[in-house]
Automatic annotation (TrEMBL):
Keywords: Transferase. It holds the Pfam family HMGL-like. It catalyses: 3-methyl-2-oxobutanoate + acetyl-CoA + H2O = (2S)-2-isopropylmalate + CoA + H(+). This is 2-isopropylmalate synthase. Its EC number is 2.3.3.13. InterPro entries: AIPM/Hcit_synth_CS, Aldolase_TIM, LeuA-like_post-cat, LeuA_allosteric_dom_sf, LeuA_N_DRE-TIM, PYR_CT. Gene3D superfamilies: 3.30.160.270, Aldolase class I (3.20.20.70). Belongs to the alpha-IPM synthase/homocitrate synthase family. LeuA type 2 subfamily. PROSITE patterns: AIPM_HOMOCIT_SYNTH_1 (PS00815), AIPM_HOMOCIT_SYNTH_2 (PS00816), PYR_CT (PS50991).
Length: 612
């Protein structure tokens, strides 16, 4: 059947309860909820191939490592496997973790469930029955009154075989009561049945009853769910023996939003699954919820530092891949392809790093560290991702993306002008390959384009001396040569070797001085330094190596600008080689009749003899 032209013939709008004086919209989340992972129950019961005991145990350990203090381990009365798994968790699980076990309102099931967790330190028994009129009618074929009686009867029975039974006195028992299908339940009835169950259980402030509100099926917009939760919470206002909890599903794709608003509306505990696994469209995604808090400056109390490992483990155990665009965890969440995004990320990252390194900044330990990198909701490194993976360069990319890759790979903040000159080369290469360039491919292209690793064949020799005050090579007075350097080099000009000698307070100054006498204008050099990464790390990123320095030198004079990019063992040597290369190119680009670099042939020069 195709979709109807008149949807209202088949679907009725959800009847939202009225709450004109709602207070949740002006509240803020300021702390994390109590988290419960239901991966091993609601998540596992929704798998095409449920996990075997060994896999469940691996998953359990992962949850413990992440820091969950409440873990639902299964439905022990449903099968021997779930029964034995609960026993194993009791015997081998950490003593500070509450184990949660689920049972329907059936006495034989309750007895078996309690048996499965005999000897445990802390147990939450999750008891539930549906409370929506639709379920009461369709599934149970009964009335609200009868459903309430069943609920109370089984809560009282559970009490008699747990906390009232001396044989179980060493266990701390908590009841979690869920009006299943709360999202579709008259809030007044939800309050009525929960009050009755609470009375039967007799909780204390030390071990409150958990009143768990499931959006068994998500029925409406998150604001409506928040109103439902606020109405319910008001029914237990000021009652410190009650903890209001949420158990949202994601049928309308709004589970995360509904859970956040539900907390504003009064809930202090949340049940869900990692990466939103669970029945149909899943339970609420706990990773997203926790990291949403984290990026608001709130410690979620869960350690997701190694998210790639967590993701891999979950994918292997559930056989469900995490979507490439899943918040925080997907492959694509930190990847920018388009030029505008890349440029903003690069600039933002540079500014943020500068703030971190600015030791003079009195804000250094506070404001300047606040993450404000455009387009990135979180610092990838906080959750185990690398910066190198952030930007992928293709023909949609501009200078910003190239700058990012070079800054990561070569620790080099390449000047805008050389990026502009290199950008068309990158686009052509990406188009020729028909795909994105990997960071290492782009770096290699840069190194090749500017012949970075090859020594310039026009530089035949290069000697640098520090001039001493009484240096015999100095032509000036002893006092004035102190701290100067002298560069002696033999270069090929129009195929002929020429000697060039220059002095200056720095290498660049000396080269400039040596060349200026023969140029038709003053030459200026500006230099940028970096490190050439020698190896590509196993994760595809770069491992920076300090072995090789890399220098970009821009030579400008008149209206002409040329570039030299060279590597060497030391920064000093790299700068000199790059500067000479840039200067030779600058000179080469002069029309022949303007070439003034007519240096003396050096047939008799001792330097040339040394080179020979
Ligand atoms: C929303 C949730 O996720 S709730 C948890 C759901 N999880 C699971 O069901 C996984 C484990 N379940 C099982 O292994 C089985 O369903 C069992 C062992 C619990 C029960 O098996 P069966 O006795 O064969 O019943 P079945 O699976 O058909 O369940 C439906 C019956 O349970 C009843 N039922 C449903 N919820 C409850 C409840 N909370 N309390 C009591 N009975 C309930 C239904 O009304 C129906 O009763 P009927 O047979 O008299 O019509
Ligand atoms: C019964 C509750 C806890 C549940 O799993 C649901 O409604 O989805």
């Amino acid at each position: 059947m195709p979709m109807l032209s008149k949807a209202s013939d088949k679907y009725a709008a959800f009847k939202a309860p009225s709450l004109p004086d709602r207070t949740w919209p002006s509240k803020k989340l300021t702390k994390p909820p109590r988290w419960l992972s239901t991966d091993l129950r609601d998540g596992n019961q929704a798998l095409a191939s449920p996990m075997n005991p060994e896999q469940k145990w691996n998953y359990f350990q992962l949850l413990v490592d992440i820091g969950f203090k409440e873990i639902e381990v299964g439905f022990p009365a449903s099968s021997d496997m779930d029964f034995q798994f609960a026993q194993k968790c009791v015997a081998e699980g950490p003593s500070d973790v509450w184990l949660e076990v689920m049972t329907p309102c059936r006495k034989d099931f309750i007895r078996r469930t309690v048996e499965a967790v005999r000897g445990a330190k802390r147990i939450i028994v999750s008891l539930y029955i549906a409370t929506s009129d639709n379920f009461i009618d369709t599934v149970f074929n009964t009335t609200r009154e009868a459903q309430l009686r069943t609920a109370v009867e089984h809560a009282a029975y559970l009490k008699s075989v747990t906390k009232d039974d001396p044989a179980h006195k060493d266990t701390t028992w908590a009841l979690m009561w869920s009006p299943e299908t709360f999202s579709d339940t008259d809030p007044a009835f939800a309050i009525e049945i929960c009050r009755a169950v609470k009375e039967a259980w007799e909780p204390t402030p030390e071990v409150p009853i958990i009143l768990n509100l499931p959006a068994t099926v998500e029925m409406s917009t998150p604001n409506v769910f928040a109103d439902q939760v606020e109405i319910f919470s008001r029914g237990f206002a000021g009652d410190d023996s009650v903890c209001v909890s949420l158990h949202p599903h994601n049928d309308r794709g709004c589970a995360v939003a509904a859970t956040e608003l539900g907390q504003l509306a009064g809930a202090t505990r949340v049940e869900g699954c990692l990466f939103g696994n669970g029945e149909r469209t899943g339970n609420v995604d706990l990773v997203t919820l926790a990291l949403n808090l984290y990026t608001q400056g709130i410690d979620p109390g869960l350690d997701l530092s190694n998210l790639p490992h967590i993701r891999k483990t979950v994918e292997t155990l559930t056989q469900i891949p995490v979507h490439t665009r899943a918040p925080y965890a997907g492959d694509s969440v930190f990847v920018a392809y388009s030029g505008g995004h890349q440029d903003a990320i690069h600039k933002g990252f540079k500014k943020w790093t500068a703030g971190l390194n600015d030791t003079n900044n009195s804000n250094n330990n506070s404001k300047s560290q606040i993450w404000k990198v455009p387009y990135l909701a979180i610092d990838p490194r906080d959750i185990g991702a690398t910066y190198e993976a952030v930007i992928r360069v293709n023909s949609q990319s501009g200078k910003g993306g190239i700058a990012w890759v070079l800054s990561q790979a070569l620790r080099l903040e390449a000047p805008k002008a050389i990026l502009g000159a290199f950008s068309p080369v990158v686009k052509t290469e990406s188009e020729a390959k028909g795909r994105t360039l990997l960071p290492e491919e782009l770096t290699e292209l840069f190194l090749r384009q500017y012949s970075v690793r090859e020594r310039d064949p026009r530089v035949l020799s290069l000697v640098k001396r520090e001039l001493q005050p009484d240096s015999p090579t100095s032509t000036s007075s002893a006092a004035s040569t102190a701290g100067l350097v002298r560069i002696e080099t033999v270069i090929l000009v129009n195929g002929l070797p020429r000697q060039l000698v220059g002095h200056g307070t720095s290498n660049l100054e000396a080269v400039r001085f040596g060349l200026s006498a023969f140029a038709d204008c003053r030459l200026e050099f500006t230099c940028t330094l970096g490190k050439l990464a020698a190896t590509v790390a196993s994760d595809g990123g770069f491992a920076a190596s300090d072995a090789q320095a890399i220098a970009i030198v821009m030579c400008s004079g008149g209206k002409r600008v040329t570039w030299g990019v060279k590597t060497a063992d030391t920064e000093e040597e790299a700068i000199l080689l790059a500067a000479l290369s840039a200067a030779l190119d600058w000179h080469k680009e002069l029309p022949l009749h303007h070439q003034r670099l007519r240096l003396l042939p050096i047939v008799h020069s001792p330097i040339v003899q040394a080179v020979a």
